[in-house]
């Protein structure tokens, strides 16, 4: 999660909502991403999507079996869907998102067995640090 927080800080330094994600296989980071929606003018440029794309490119495959994603904020419906479609084994979440979180907060799409094999989900890892960076960002915006 520390690596995901480092990615979130990159987003913060670029004026983006500070969310970061990394994809890990074994003990190696194979994909990294941070929010870049404003920089890329791309509604899909969420940290999770960019980390999945990076892992796909680095591993030269679209299936991410054997991988775990660490993400600082609970994924939205788009990102949760992409995680399922990538066939990832596990998702480790820092802070929950009561407004757009689709891994248990608003809806739990990521563990909906009707969608086939879904990843294991662990929440609350370094939760205080993950919440703090978001709160600080939004307090500065106000």
From TrEMBL:
PROSITE patterns: CYT_DCMP_DEAMINASES_1, CYT_DCMP_DEAMINASES_2
GO biological process, one term: tRNA wobble adenosine to inosine editing
Family membership: Belongs to the cytidine and deoxycytidylate deaminase family. ADAT2 subfamily.
Molecular functions per Gene Ontology: tRNA-specific adenosine-34 deaminase activity; zinc ion binding
Active site: 48
Keywords assigned: Hydrolase, Metal-binding, tRNA processing, Zinc
Binding site for Zn(2+): 46, 76, 79
UniProt xrefs under HAMAP family: tRNA_aden_deaminase
Species for this entry: Calorimonas adulescens
Protein name as catalogued: tRNA-specific adenosine deaminase
Cofactor: Zn(2+)
Subunit-structure text: Homodimer.
Annotated function: Catalyzes the deamination of adenosine to inosine at the wobble position 34 of tRNA(Arg2).
Catalyzed chemical reaction(s): adenosine(34) in tRNA + H2O + H(+) = inosine(34) in tRNA + NH4(+)
Domain CMP/dCMP-type deaminase: 1-105
Top-level taxon of origin: Bacteria
InterPro entries: APOBEC/CMP_deaminase_Zn-bd (IPR016192), CMP_dCMP_dom (IPR002125), Cytidine_deaminase-like (IPR016193), tRNA_aden_deaminase (IPR028883)
UniProt-listed Pfam families: dCMP_cyt_deam_1 (PF00383)
UniProt-listed Enzyme Commission number(s): 3.5.4.33
Co-factor binding details: Binds 1 zinc ion per subunit.
């Amino acid at each position: 999660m520390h690596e995901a927080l480092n990615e979130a800080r990159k987003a913060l330094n670029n004026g983006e909502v500070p969310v970061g994600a990394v994809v890990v296989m074994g003990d190696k980071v194979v994909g990294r991403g941070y929010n870049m929606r404003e920089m890329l003018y791309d509604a899909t440029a969420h940290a999770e999507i960019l980390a999945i794309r990076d892992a796909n490119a680095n591993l030269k495959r679209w299936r991410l079996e054997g991988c775990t994603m660490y993400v600082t904020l609970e994924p939205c419906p788009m990102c949760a869907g992409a995680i399922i479609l990538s066939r990832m084994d596990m998702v480790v979440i820092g802070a929950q998102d009561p407004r757009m979180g689709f891994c248990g907060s608003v809806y739990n799409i990521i563990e909906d067995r009707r969608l086939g094999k879904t990843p294991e989900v662990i929440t609350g890892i370094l939760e205080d640090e993950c919440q703090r960076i978001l709160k600080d960002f939004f307090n500065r915006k106000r």
